[in-house]
Amino acid sequence: MIIGKMGKGKVKEREDRNLLKRVAKKVNISEGERGVEDILRVIYRNQPISTKRIAQLCKLPLPIVAKVRTILERERILKRENGAVLTEKGLEFVENVLKFKFKGSLRCPLCEGRGIVLNEFFKEILEKVKPWFRKRPEVNTLLDQSYATPETSVYRAALMCERGDLEGKRIIFIGDDDLTSLPVALTQFPEEVYVVDIDERLLNLIKSFSEKEGVKIRIVKHDLRKEMPEELKNNFDVFSTDPPYTIDGLKLFLSRGVECLGEEGVAYLSYSHKPIDEWLKVQEEITKMNFVISELIPNFNYYEGSEIIGNTTFIARLIGKRLKVNIGDTEKIYTGLVKPTVRYYKCLKCGKIHKLLNERIESLRCECGSKKFRMIKREKLS
Amino acid sequence: MIIGKMGKGKVKEREDRNLLKRVAKKVNISEGERGVEDILRVIYRNQPISTKRIAQLCKLPLPIVAKVRTILERERILKRENGAVLTEKGLEFVENVLKFKFKGSLRCPLCEGRGIVLNEFFKEILEKVKPWFRKRPEVNTLLDQSYATPETSVYRAALMCERGDLEGKRIIFIGDDDLTSLPVALTQFPEEVYVVDIDERLLNLIKSFSEKEGVKIRIVKHDLRKEMPEELKNNFDVFSTDPPYTIDGLKLFLSRGVECLGEEGVAYLSYSHKPIDEWLKVQEEITKMNFVISELIPNFNYYEGSEIIGNTTFIARLIGKRLKVNIGDTEKIYTGLVKPTVRYYKCLKCGKIHKLLNERIESLRCECGSKKFRMIKREKLS
User: Fold this and answer.
1) Predicted confidence band at A359 (pLDDT cuts at 50, 70, 90)?
2) pLDDT of B37-90, one tens digit each?
3) Any long-range contacts for B253-257 (C-beta under 8 Å, 24+ apart)?
4) How far is residue A308 from each of residues A144, A245, B315, measured CA to CA in Å?
5) Residue B105 forms part of a structural domain
6) Do A168 and B41 touch (CB under 8 A)?
């Protein structure tokens, strides 16, 4: 028995929404119409707003947002006024067709949606680690390094503390270019803090931190493509990782973590907000290893630079029982190897064009002496 | 190359922690030692604390927490002083063996860990729905009904709003004993709000609400064990459900929701914090349907009564693409049918013992006229 009549058919297929479909198709955005709608909603609620901030709030890659923005400007839906702003036509479209009405934000202003806050103790830790974060070596993008902000790393430590995963625990970091081991060690709560990384520059920085600050962090130089050293296996309660954002990278780093935990334990996984198809694959692989996602907080982590991922990733607390290693292709773990990309950069001083293939822009120097460039083109090699 | 020597072996297997293992075994707690450790940590951080609050914070069933508490009292680890409190021996154990040190709480005091807050608009909605929540009929525990607090339902509506799942959307509630449709409809943001439920008493309450408050909620009486009516199929953008906390209940309710979404859409799932083995199964089934868990917030929902689940459940926002229906046994969807339990209640007036099998304590009346009982025993039938 149905009381009342049905409406005019589901919203998502209405003809007046064709603009969304058209734009989604042009940009080839994996999130489809919903992705374009999300961008418009974020602009409606926050205008004027920068492309970078749209990307963060929508959890979309910056180049995708930039493309959508350009097309919507051409369609006279958006204009530029200290950021993206809806035109009169745009406002008419989002309010009458998409039915947008809500302009505020309900995100908690105190914790910014993270659900936890820093008390005095953790605020002091933040101040203590900040100068060390500034000493980090240049990122090596070939290793998919990208540096989390000091706030992010301290919030991670606070989350681990709140969930009971620091006190009395043996903790290992499977890669630690984010230096999360620093605030974790400063709490003095864990039994042991280990860091495994391939980058000696980072390990040396961590070593000199632990000496200067009088905290114990044990460092291990190791290429994670190889099995864990025997002494580290089955020897930890908790691990934390922010792996390369490829399926094989994720599987490899989680599996090395599982080797360290043994049968059971807790994992903190920081990972990029992926398009549904890819994230579904990730969920499958995590499930195969016998990890449950006990908690998943979007936009928990922020990074310096790394615009491709919109500067923000989620954190998930995984709990494992009867854990299984699940390793795929150990060679193609870095994004540059999975999707080789040629990037063209123009020198901002002399105008010379430089072509980069799996090389780091950070180490590029023009013959004219300049270090400033603008990317003018990207091409994916198949 | 390992710098520094390894510690004395992993914490979780140390002999001095045997107490945890012993208690976990006695209570047969699926979370094992970690469960007992969680209970002790929550007491250490919040003493004196009630059994109910321990259950909420640990996300464990109340009867389990009560049993652990009793055994730990016998072991002279805990005592009673306006709630659970650690004895001197207990303090010594948790500080020297488990190494507890942190006494505060980092949970955001403003949003209580939910990540979102109510603005004036939603606070007004809360006040408006409160009297309607008081009019709810007696829960029918045979249908696994348990009533969320009005705050919980309004927070759900706020979360849906913040994530962009209200404005202009067609929304359906797959069961709505929590009356979440009320605050959702009061926003006036959605295109359509539908409620499907088997309980006519609830549907009538929703109907009179929508008439009195002048908002449109369409109600459909339907037994979810049967396929969705054709008119509802492939006709919605978003659904919300708080299904029976059994695997088959979850699969059935989600599948009916999927019938309503068609190929793709968003789902809000409220579900009990399950032991790892069971939650792993849930994660597998969700993944099979092609839903990704884009967000999972523990302790988001609170209920009136329903102590078995510790009064609190999580909410997850699922995004689906190429969705698949995934229905198991449609008969054994309610917990009482999966694990038939005999409960014995003692009348608090005359002392008579009543035996209940799949009957509701809410409708029990003693021959002496009293309606007050204390449960004295539970037995699971195999």
Assistant:
1) low
2) 999 999 999 999 999 899 999 988 888 999 999 999 999 999 999 999 999 999
3) B253/B174, B253/B175, B253/B224, B254/B174, B254/B285, B254/B286, B254/B289, B254/B291, B254/B326, B255/B289, B255/B325, B255/B326, B255/B327, B256/B174, B256/B196, B256/B224, B256/B228, B257/B172, B257/B174
4) 11, 11, 30
5) no
6) no
DSSP single-letter state for residue A95: I
Quickly count: other Cβ atoms within 10 Å of residue B80's Cβ: 10
Do A163 and A302 fall within a single domain?
yes
CATH number, domain at B61?
A: 1.10.10.10
> Does residue A234 share a domain with residue A127?
yes
Chain A residues in contact with B116 (beta carbon < 8 A): 106-108, 113
B52 and B58 Cβ atoms separated by less than 8 Å? no
- Is residue B252 domain-shared with residue B145, that is, in the same domain? yes
Closest Cβ–Cβ partner in A216, A221, A236 for B1: A221
* Domain final residue, candidates A97, A130, A155: A97
Which one-letter DSSP state was computed for residue B93?
Answer: I
Asked which of B97, B129, B153 is the last residue of a domain, the reply is B97
**What CATH number is attached to the domain comprising A352?**
2.20.28
Q: What is the ipTM of this complex?
A: 0.87
The confidence score (pLDDT) of residue B355 equals 79
Please count the helices (runs of H) and the strands (runs of E) in chain A: 12, 12
Residues A125 and A34 in one domain: no
B54/B183 same-domain check: no
| CATH number of the structural domain spanning residue A276 | 3.40.50.150
Residues A24 and A171 in one domain: no
Q: Is the bond preceding residue A48 a cis peptide, omega within 30 degrees?
A: yes
Asked whether residue A104 is domain-assigned, the answer is: no
Domain that holds residue B83: 11-97
B314-341 pLDDT per residue, tens: 999 999 999 999 888 777 777 665 666 7
- How many structural domains is chain A composed of? 3
- If asked whether residues B66 and B174 sit together in one domain, one would say no
Q: Do A165 and A313 share a structural domain? A: yes
Burial class (CB in 10 A: 0-12, 13-18, 19+), A350: exposed
CB-CB neighbors (< 8 A) of B110 in chain A: 108-111
Helix axis angle, B32-46 relative to B62-74, nearest 10°?
80
Please give the Cα distance from A176 to A166 (Å, whole number). 17
Nearest chain A residue (CA) to B278: A292
Give the integer Cα–Cα distance in Å for A28 and A203. Answer: 40
Residue B102 is assigned to a structural domain of this protein = no
In tens, the pLDDT along B185-238 reads: 999 999 999 999 999 999 999 999 999 999 999 999 999 999 999 999 999 999
Residue B282 lies in a domain: yes
Q: What letter represents residue B28's amino acid?
A: N
**Residue A188 CA, distance from chain mean position:** 28
Judge whether residue A224 has pLDDT over 90: yes
> Which residues in chain B are closer than 8 Å to A319, comparing Cβ atoms?
276
Residue B4's pLDDT band (cuts 50, 70, 90): very low
